[in-house]
């Protein structure tokens, strides 16, 4: 996709300007690719057929902070949004990606699925984690539609293929001065058990539970490396201050667990920085700085079976994969997202690793695909497709990203290659 470029960029400053852009784009058959801060890494915002990139950076106002919720424009940076809600009434976002300091709220909803906070609050698709979305369609006369409830899934995590989000309403939670914690254990299976058991401790308030197989910490985290060995699995945590007594009591139940850092009491010559910036997609980014041959996969380890599945997958790829796990709730139950580090050799081997995961019953959300379906459950979302037919009758919104629109009979037996992709010059 390196050769793909837009023909021009438009940065609207109001919803009315978004409406005007989409009206003109529809009239002139111009592709429109919506872009937030560009932190997504699956090609969601790549303009595959030229046209216009609709950059939402100017729609960044916090419109209202209310008890338990905030109304905001999509171009607002997540860190800035949290700063505004904290200053207003001591509230913060329930969840955010590891790209918190640079990503936008609209981009997170349009292309994300969960992140820091998901160990307590679940994922974006869970009921109550998005309250309302305001969306502009790409019709001859664009409509402005507000979605709530089940209808939210028509446009959330849709890569901007069926409407342009112009306003977001999401829930807030009480803000805390979260304590960053690092714990080591020599046995990876025990580290997974600790993480899962902590996730089930509902009385201990936490915002992050990450697990890293050895030697991830010693090999890829330079500021942590002096304090661990190559045999140490690492657990990264964010715990609320008032839950620390409960957490320390919990940790003492696990012989061999060693608390090596807590941000309110430990001082290292080089501080590690925010623990969440070691987790989720940042883990892969840190590994890439050391070894450019590293890549990764996204795997779902389901509730009730995650310990056995993680052990099975780990045993199947000795020396080739390093487990990196993020605790999250799925339908209220503890599960893990595996953002597995892969030592890349060939594309064929990478595809084989994906197939072997699926054969073992571990679903892969493939980050090496740029379409909605292939990066998800490899099936058509009827709600999203039906709304695209209504909201984007010419198919000008982020074309090439929704297989169901372009090739409804696609069987997912190979990687989809969009025939309309703009040719390299």
Question: TL;DR?
Answer:
With 425 residues, the protein is an alpha+beta fold. Helices cover 26% and strands 23% of the residues. The chain contains twelve helices and 18 strands.
What does this structure look like?
By secondary structure, the protein is α+β, with helices and mostly antiparallel strands. The protein has two domains: 1-175 and 369-425, Uridine Diphospho-n-acetylenolpyruvylglucosamine Reductase, domain 3 (2-Layer Sandwich), CATH 3.30.465; 179-364, Vanillyl-alcohol Oxidase, Chain A, domain 3 (3-Layer(aba) Sandwich). It contains twelve helices and 18 strands. The chain has helices at 15-28, 78-89, 105-111, 118-121, 188-199, 216-220, 244-251, 281-290, 306-316, 347-359, 382-391, 403-406; strands at 8-10, 32-35, 52-55, 62-66, 69-72, 91-93, 132-136, 144-147, 164-174, 179-185, 206-212, 233-239, 258-262, 294-301, 321-322, 324-330, 333-343, 363-364. The strands form three sheets. Strands 10, 11, 12, 13, 14, 15, 16, 17 and 18 form a nine-stranded antiparallel sheet that branches. Strands 4, 5, 6, 7, 8 and 9 form a six-stranded antiparallel sheet that branches.
Question: Which keywords apply here?
Answer:
Uridine Diphospho-n-acetylenolpyruvylglucosamine Reductase, domain 3; 2 domains; six-stranded antiparallel sheet; Vanillyl-alcohol Oxidase, Chain A, domain 3; 18 strands; alpha+beta
How helix-rich are the residues, as a percent range? 25-40%
Number of contiguous helices:
12
Distance between the termini: 13 Å
Count up the domains.
2
- Broad shape: globular
Strand content range: 15-25%
Strand segment tally: 18
Provide the gyration radius in Å. Answer: 22 Å
Q: What is the CATH architecture assignment of the largest domain?
A: 2-Layer Sandwich
Low-confidence stretches: none
Structural classification: alpha+beta
Major β-sheet annotation: 9 strands, antiparallel
Mean of residue pLDDT values: 95
CATH class of the largest domain: Alpha Beta
Could you say what the CATH topology of the largest domain is called? Uridine Diphospho-n-acetylenolpyruvylglucosamine Reductase, domain 3
> What string, H for helix and E for strand, traces the elements in order?
EHEEEEHEHHEEEEHEHEHEHEHEEEHEHH
């Amino acid at each position: 996709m390196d050769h793909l470029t837009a023909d021009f960029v438009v940065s609207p400053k109001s919803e009315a300007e978004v409406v005007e852009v989409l009206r003109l784009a529809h009239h002139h058959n111009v592709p429109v690719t919506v872009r937030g801060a560009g932190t997504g890494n699956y090609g969601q915002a790549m303009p595959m057929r030229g046209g216009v990139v609709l950059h939402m950076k100017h729609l960044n106002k916090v419109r209202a902070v209310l008890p338990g919720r905030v109304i905001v424009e999509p171009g607002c940076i997540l860190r800035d949004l949290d700063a505004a809600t904290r200053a207003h009434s001591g509230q913060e976002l329930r969840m955010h990606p590891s790209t918190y300091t640079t990503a936008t709220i609209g981009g997170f909803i349009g292309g994300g699925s969960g992140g820091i906070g998901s160990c307590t609050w679940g994922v974006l698709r869970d009921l109550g984690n998005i309250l309302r979305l305001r969306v502009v369609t790409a019709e001859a006369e664009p409509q402005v539609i507000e979605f709530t409830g089940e209808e939210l899934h028509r446009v959330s995590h849709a890569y901007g293929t069926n409407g342009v989000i112009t306003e977001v309403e999401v829930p807030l939670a009480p803000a805390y001065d979260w304590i960053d914690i690092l714990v080591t254990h020599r046995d990876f299976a025990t580290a997974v058990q600790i993480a899962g058991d902590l996730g089930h401790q509902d009385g201990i308030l936490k915002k992050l539970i990450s697990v890293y197989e050895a030697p991830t910490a010693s090999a890829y985290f330079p500021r942590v490396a002096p304090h661990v060995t190559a045999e140490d699995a690492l657990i990264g945590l964010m715990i609320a201050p008032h839950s620390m007594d409960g957490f320390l009591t919990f940790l003492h139940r696990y012989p061999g667990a060693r608390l090596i850092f807590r941000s309110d009491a430990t001082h290292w010559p080089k501080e590690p920085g925010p623990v969440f910036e070691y987790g989720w997609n940042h883990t892969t980014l840190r590994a890439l700085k050391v070894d450019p041959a590293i890549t990764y996969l996204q795997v779902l380890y389901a509730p009730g079976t995650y310990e056995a599945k993680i052990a099975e997958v780990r045993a199947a790829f000795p020396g080739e994969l390093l487990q990196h796990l993020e605790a999250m709730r799925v339908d209220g139950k503890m599960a893990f997202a595996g953002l597995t580090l892969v030592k890349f050799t060939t594309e064929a081997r990478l595809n084989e690793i994906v197939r072997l995961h699926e054969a073992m019953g571990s679903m892969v959300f493939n980050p090496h695909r740029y379409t909605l379906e292939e990066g998800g459950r490899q099936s058509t979302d009827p709600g999203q497709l039906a709304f695209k037919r209504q909201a984007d009758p010419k198919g000008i919104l982020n074309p090439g990203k929704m297989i169901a629109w372009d090739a409804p009979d696609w069987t997912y037996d190979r990687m989809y290659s969009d025939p309309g992709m703009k040719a390299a010059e």
